[in-house]
């Protein structure tokens, strides 16, 4: 059967965006190793609730690693110690009895803390609104098989499109840069024929919005790639740089010939 | 009394004719109307974007921190469409027929035909948006097979189809937000519907960050709020999925249809312990290549349960590939309800596997031998990784253990052909309505329905309603009806916050889940259902006397949010059981032990039960009243479903 462990949690508690936060030490007892990290927090919260104390607020929803709602910096690493997983897919077998676990929210000026471990990530939405789409209305589009797209290109675009928008890349970056996030969407459309007509305007608009939101600059440390739970590659950033540079250096007419 | 408003004429012409007969709103007048869309999943995001493109002002609401997080994102396997790109005999009629049959003849013909008809437009639309569907080496779109069909009509993006489709709809939505046509409200939960002179004119929401109870006015309201599977506590739904928006609308006059039709999905990772907060689905697409089996004898099963032997130690002759044995023509690709019931039967027979004995194997050894590990990884890699992550077992080396879990609810708010509820101006789309899947939904059809409703149905039908309103005057959010509804919500919130008992909200939710799973799960009886009604009524009293809700209203308060949702689930649970009790037949996912064929398959009673049950709310603690919509089949002959 599964082993049980006792853990010491140092959890960031903060009432709201107007107050200062602090670490609070909480003991977690009798945790089974086949629980997920969030189920461990459920148990801690259950305990707190029974004692009449305010439970720890954290964002989460699908608990399948796809919605991108869960976050948490665990012992200094976004989504915890395991590579390629979200916090909701992290299991307690990655920890050991007696361990101290430090749990913090994403730290970035563009992601203000709302309460405890939850932050406001609407900056990401606004970047997408700036240009993360193909300008096409519902209806009146050609048959889906009109354009053949080489499998290699389609697969590569898909890899970029799998970004879950969690923000771990920003949390991992010492500059709190959002380049990996932005580059994933720009890459998806730069690769596909559907995205060609607005390719350079898109790159420019999304980067401008990113800067406006207060995200830092990219200095190519690669921390974002290392912590990305779905394996978005740094090559996306290289592509974004190329797209952006092309947009800046050449005039609009030249781009479209 | 219930008028489905299905247009006259031949099945294949109904939608075209109807579209022509619907009234239009002149482009210059569209901007005078506001439409509220609650929920931003496939149905909500596609509806909000499409209506905004037409010129309407849209207000979209999501309880998550971004529209992109709606639970459609987690759909894995694919989306059906009658493209017949594979030249394997598919057609609109075949997709229609498969869906009607898969739903065990309890869906409305005209709605299902329209769904099949517009399915082809959905794929075109998504590709135009840049959704990266899987492709063949020649560059054209690839398809896979899904349960309940003998053609390959499922379009997919690895095991993340829902994610890619939702991000497509989200991108269309973002475009309209940028253009100022959609105003989006994240972290807002709908807590009441507001009616003026009988028409839906707005909603009351709680801002989950500040606790503010807000009034939002509009000329029409669209509920795109998903299903109610979390009534079982454990399900494949996201943690925040609830019936609350739909239920509050129900209390304001929207009839609730077929609440007992729930889908228990056959391939989920089995329950491991009490701490578990949710269950994880393993896509049905895995049944394309995975073979389902249990040992032939209880003795071997015992050894497997104790860990004395491994699955690979069980000889071929000692294995029972029960789906292939019982259903040779569909094999492992029988519909979900059939696959689930057979897994339960094997476990009840003492032949289940894994430590708990409550699981069956889904084995890829044969597929890996035939295709190679790399090909299997290319098709299902992310699902295998997810399984490995959760169970710490490598599915490339040993078979997956799977067991059915609550996944989808076919029942929902009753709607007519225009997707309008019994409240004029109130619509329900996607999983939130009841209309297209009858008593069992086929795989890869939920995404199809959500997008069909949002992209291609509602833009026409809501216009008809607005055109007939006869006035362009804005709706006043200070109308007394809003004040009254707002006061009700504030009062209810305070009531919840005053609860200072001994149990947590989850304690009660888990108890409800146990009752529902035990008596209203995969097998139901009159005796069990009758007992469950009493148990749920007692649980309701327990909730309102002994639950503990912490904190204040004016903050992010998970305890308060959950309490409101569970209070609604309890009431819904009672209605589900009541509905299951009145339907003394088996059909699709609703399996009454009293009504089965000699071979143990679901046995319908078409003479008495070929109807939709639609329930009318009559007040707190009062029995709901049953209305019936007779289902008329003009094109399909009702037969005993057979997948042999």
Automatic annotation (TrEMBL), chain B:
Instruction: Tell me where in this chain the Fumarate reductase/succinate dehydrogenase flavoprotein-like C-terminal domain is found.
Output: 509-643
Which keywords has UniProt assigned to this entry? Cell membrane, Electron transport, FAD, Flavoprotein, Membrane, Oxidoreductase, Transport
Q: Which reaction does this chain catalyze?
A: a quinone + succinate = fumarate + a quinol
The answer to whether the entry has keyword Oxidoreductase is yes
Which GO molecular function, any one, fits this protein according to its record? Answer: succinate dehydrogenase (quinone) activity
- What does the record give as the active site? 336
Its GO CC terms?
Answer: plasma membrane
Q: What is its main location?
A: membrane
- Can you say where in the cell this protein is located? Cell membrane
Keyword match Transport: yes
Q: Which Pfam families match?
A: FAD_binding_2 (PF00890), Succ_DH_flav_C (PF02910)
Residues of the FAD-dependent oxidoreductase 2 FAD-binding domain: 35-447
**How does the record classify its membrane topology?**
Peripheral membrane protein
Q: What is its EC number?
A: 1.3.5.1
**Cofactor(s) listed:** FAD
> Which GO terms are recorded in the biological process aspect for this UniProt protein?
anaerobic respiration
NCBIfam families tied to this protein: PRK07573.1, sdhA_Bsu
Q: Which PANTHER family match?
A: SUCCINATE DEHYDROGENASE 2 FLAVOPROTEIN SUBUNIT, SUCCINATE DEHYDROGENASE FLAVOPROTEIN SUBUNIT
| Family per similarity comment | Belongs to the FAD-dependent oxidoreductase 2 family. FRD/SDH subfamily.
Q: What is this protein called?
A: succinate dehydrogenase
